[in-house]
Every structure is written in C-alpha cells, then in structure tokens.
Design goal:
By secondary structure, the chain is mostly helical. The chain has one domain. The chain is built from eight helices and no strands. Helix 3 packs parallel to helix 6, helix 3 packs antiparallel against helix 7 and helix 4 runs parallel beside helix 6. The two termini are 27 Å apart.
Length: 135
C-alpha cells in the first residue's frame, strides 16, 4: 500500500470527487471476483471493456503474467512522474492497490476493504448506497 504523505496531499479531493470513485472500486472488486473464480486469464476480455487507460494497462500487465514487482514499478512510475493530482491521482492510487491485490489472488472482500480506505470522506451508508446503485 502506498504510504507517501506528499503523494497523499496531491491526491486530496472533495467528498463528491471521492464519491465518484466508488464505481472504480466496484470495478476492481468485480475483477477480483472474476479472477478468483475463473483465473487471471479470464480478465483478458475485460480489458477491452475498460475505458480508463491506467486501469487498462495495469490489467494487461497482470493478464500477461508480468512479474508483480515490475507491475508495481510501472504503475508507480506513472503515479509519480505523470502530472496527475486530485481525483485523477487518487483514482490511479485506488487502481494500483486493487490491481496488485488481484494479481496476488486476494479475495474480492479484501480488495474492497483495501481500496475503500482511500475514500475517507465518505461514510459507510453513502458508500454502500453508491455500491448498490452501480449494480
């Protein structure tokens, strides 16, 4: 998990921006469920349905069975060296965390918990409603 205070400050965003990222967490949770049940290669078809280029690249690396350390380095390089901030940066951090956990074979519940933690401005009830509304 990324623990960088300067990065966290750059990723600060409003509650509304954080609420808009719940859909990304749902996508990561769903990808994790599919990978756990059907294997990582089952995610190959999913990458073509995804419009976010950062998520698409990360998913491709995982499907290609790229070494986890290399995946982490590539995603971290994008996070640190591309001029993202606010909501866009926070989304990349969420995606990085979720993808690395999917690659490790963690269950969907753990992926959900470990990505949700980045959305500290959203209370539990709001988060659950937003997760339900995307179904």
């Amino acid at each position: 998990m990324l623990r960088d205070l300067a990065l966290a400050a750059k990723a600060a965003c409003s509650k509304e921006d954080q609420e808009s990222l719940v859909a990304t967490i749902k996508i990561l949770k769903d990808l994790g469920e599919k990978a756990k049940k059907q294997g990582i290669l089952s995610l190959e078809e999913e990458q073509f349905k995804i419009s976010d280029p950062f998520l698409q690249v990360g998913l491709q690396l995982i499907v290609d069975k790229t070494d986890p350390e290399v995946v982490c380095n590539i995603l971290d390089s994008d996070i640190y060296y591309n001029e993202s901030n606010g909501r866009e940066l926070l989304k990349k951090i969420l995606v990085r965390e979720g993808l690395l956990r999917i690659q490790k074979g963690e269950n969907a519940r753990n992926i959900l918990l470990c990505t949700k933690v980045f959305l500290g401005k959203i209370d539990r009830d709001t988060f659950n409603k937003l997760m339900e509304s995307d179904r």
